[in-house]
Amino acid sequence: MDYSMLLSPMKIGNLEIKNRTVMTAAEFSMGQANGKPTEKLMDYYEERAKGGVGLIIAGICRVNDMYATSSFTQLAMSHDYHIEPMREFVGRIHRHGAKLGIQLHHPGRQGYASSVNSLPMILPLVEKKPEIMEMLYKATPTMMALEEKGICCKKAGVDLVELHAAHGYLIQQFLSPNTNHRKDEYGGSFDNRLRFISEIITGIKAACGKDYPLMVRLSADEMYDRIGKPGKGYDLEEGKRIAKRLEELGVDAIILRLL
Questions:
Q1: 169 catalytic, yes or no?
Q2: Of 72, 47, 76, which Cα lies nearest the Cα of 60?
Q3: Which end of the chain has fewer surrounding CB within 10 Å, N or C?
């Protein structure tokens, strides 16, 4: 089998990547309670960079400690004190010729009730009693099971950012007529439902420069017709319209997901 295309360089915006292998974002629950990466997390990703992956995207990275928490052990880019640890993370990936992206994420209605509003209280406790983290690590799988039922990146040298607009999280909540029942300028029509993500994209471009690489993970089809509920949510045709609008707004790459 000829792997020449897979191993050839590619570009996302102006970012040149040594090959076309991408490790997409996933949550491994190996961050610190304050959102900084642990040695274990950096070691894990560095081994993937050593293995030859061209682009690694680390997720789910919260943007707010109070209302955007999905796990006590996820990464964060919500404060300036995250910059230097992230810079170290970036350096460890770069030394093997790979690039590092960060997935910016807000869970919306899928945030953990046990976590939201409690993290600011947890942080000082962890600083005084680090052993508390062992309890939180053990609790994370349970909280993840419950979920199944129920701009400082550039300063740190991160190569690109990805917006999480899939899987029913906050941005997709605005995109879908199934979850967006707003009566103001952010709800109703197609254009209104895209207003939230459009303002995020233009804000990132304004803050980081129009050439800073930006990706979006997008649910392309909510697939309600597959379960006998046609007309609910949005289908593939509207998903394609959303993707086209994102391209017009300057998004450099889109990872399309079902659901």
A1: yes
A2: 76
A3: N
Tell me which of 169, 186, 224, 234 is the catalytic residue.
Answer: 169
Radius of gyration of the chain (CA): 19
Band (pLDDT 50/70/90 cuts) for residue 138 is: low
Among the listed residues 120, 72, 76, 79, the one whose alpha carbon sits nearest the alpha carbon of residue 102? 76
Q: Which of 172, 256, 158 is nearest to 213 (CA)?
A: 158
Q: Work out the number of other CB atoms within 10 angstroms of the CB of residue 254.
A: 18
Stretch 158-168: mean pLDDT, rounded? 94
> What's at 186, amino acid-wise?
Y
Largest CA distance in the chain: 56
Strand partners, 100: 56
Work out whether the CA dihedral 98, 153, 108, 143 comes out positive or negative. Answer: positive
Q: Is the pLDDT of residue 135 over 70?
A: no
Q: What is the average pLDDT score of the chain?
A: 86
Helix axis angle, 236-248 to 195-208, nearest 10°: 30
User: Looking at 200-247, which runs of residues are DSSP E strands?
Assistant: 214-221
83, burial (CB in 10 Å: exposed 0-12, middle 13-18, buried 19+): middle
Look at residues 226, 81, 35, 69 and name the one whose alpha carbon lies nearest to residue 144.
69
Q: Are 255 and 216 in contact (CB under 8 A)?
A: yes
Q: What angle do CA 161, 37, 201 make, to 5 degrees?
A: 15
For residue 132, the model assigns a pLDDT of 61
The count of C-alpha atoms lying within 13 angstroms of the C-alpha of 229, restricted to the half-sphere facing its C-beta, is 8
